[in-house]
Amino acid sequence: MKPEKKREFETRVVCEMIDLYYKKHPNPKEQEELTAYAKLRISKCPFMESKSFCSHCKVHCYRNEKREQIRQVMRYAGPRMLLRHPLMTLRHLWLDHQAQIEKPLFLLIGFIGLFLCILGAILPLLPAFPFALLAAWGFARSSEKLHTKFINSRLYKDNAKDWVETRSMKKSAKIRVLTTISVVMLIGFIMMRRVPIGQFILVLVWIGHVLYFRYGMKTMPEEHETPARIAPTARNAADSGVL
Fold it and tell me: In this predicted model, what pLDDT tens digit does every residue of 216-235 receive, in sequence order?
């Protein structure tokens, strides 16, 4: 979340908590002063981009009196916010623990992609290409060491490197991907036999995939085709006396 959006959201959460506390403990003057003070401190916070939320900040910028007041507010309103503003509370909890959740989550995605990529390299009908991209994406968001090791591996180079660098694929890889897509869509087509409009959309999507792989993505020559193309050139050079 961008710092200004985060600052705005933090202000809304604190104001709602203060409002909830003073509905139970009425004191209009104190509520107004604490709300204004909290808004001021949040607006001047220099750590909004890197820190989580005020409750976890290492720098205590509140004066002692106001700090004790805001602690009382949070102790009372915190558990009750889930009932009054469930979506705001869940969003706050997610943003508050995002760093701790994201890394293991993306690491798990990376290993799932790696496992499926290995299966795709073994099984003829399962394309390894999309799972190699998934593994690279997951490791890139969770571990620089694993990401570097994976993109330098033969598994990645054989299945995804060509597309990432040149937006092209070998013919055999295209066939594997299209075969898998076709099988999955055929199953969906059969299951939607009572929904003609769904079948029509699936056919259009399948045609779109075929056209994209045929005309929208370049085809790289297979490795075993390269010597066949080079050989005539070498023979011509030898005949002309260059070699």
Answer: 888 877 654 444 444 444 44
- Taking residue 240's Cβ as centre, other Cβ atoms within 10 Å add up to 8
Tokens of 79: 């558990």
Q: Which of 167, 135, 128 is nearest to 150 (CA)?
A: 135
170 phi, psi to nearest 5 deg: -75, 155
Residues in the chain, total: 243
pLDDT confidence bin for 70, thresholds 50/70/90: confident
- The enclosing H or E element of 142 equals helix 129-142
Residue 170: strand, helix, or coil: strand
Specify the pairing of strand 218-220 against strand 168-170.
parallel
Distances from the Cα of 53 to the Cα of 8, 22, 75, angstroms: 12, 22, 15
Instruction: Assign 7 a pLDDT band (cuts: 50, 70, 90).
Output: confident
Under 8 Å between Cβ of 136 and 156: yes
Rounded distance between C-alpha atoms, residue 203 and residue 134, angstroms: 26
* pTM for this predicted structure: 0.52
What contacts 17, CB < 8 A, 6 or more positions away?
73, 74, 77, 78, 81
Other CB atoms within a 10 A radius of the CB of residue 166 amount to 11
Q: What gap in Å lies between CA 148 and CA 170, rounded to an integer?
A: 24
Structure confidence by residue, pLDDT tens digits, 123-136: 766 778 888 999 99
